[in-house]
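Lab notebook, bench 4. The sequencing result for the construct came back, and we need a structural model before the next group meeting so we can plan mutations. Quick request posted to the team channel:

Model the 3D structure of this chain.
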Amino acid sequence: MTAIVPPVVVPPVVVEFIPGTRVEREPPHTTGLPIVGNGPPGTFVVFAGNARVPLPTDQIVSADDTGGAARVGFGGMRFDGVEDGLLVFRRVRDLWPPERLSPERGVRMTLEPAMVTVVLVEGHVVWPAVH
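Done. Here's the predicted structure in C-alpha cell form:
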C-alpha cells in the first residue's frame, strides 16, 4: 500500500528575522461579552533587549522561533520591495471574516531591513536580492 502524502503548503510570504528574535502572542482576552470588531490578540517579534515589533496577527498562517530566530508566514500579504529604505508588505486579502477583524487594521506593514535576514515569496528568496 502506498502512503498518501499531503502536499507541503508554502505561505505566500515568509519573513525570517535576525537571530535571537522570538515570536510572542498575547493571550486571548475574554470578558464573557461578545466584542465585535476588536481584532485578534496581538502578535509581536521580540528582539534582544525586549524591543517588540507588532505584526498583523490576522495575516499570520505560520510562526516559529525554535531555530533561534523568528520565522513568520503571511497568507494575505504581498512583498512590494524596498520603499524609502524600508521593507514594505501590503495586505491583498483578508483571511478572517470581517467580524473578527479590527476596523483599525493596516493595509501596509513596514520593517527595517536590519531586522530581517531574508524574505521569501512562494519559497523563493526575493530579499536580499540574489544576483
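Residues 13-26+40-122 form one domain.
Will bring this to the meeting.
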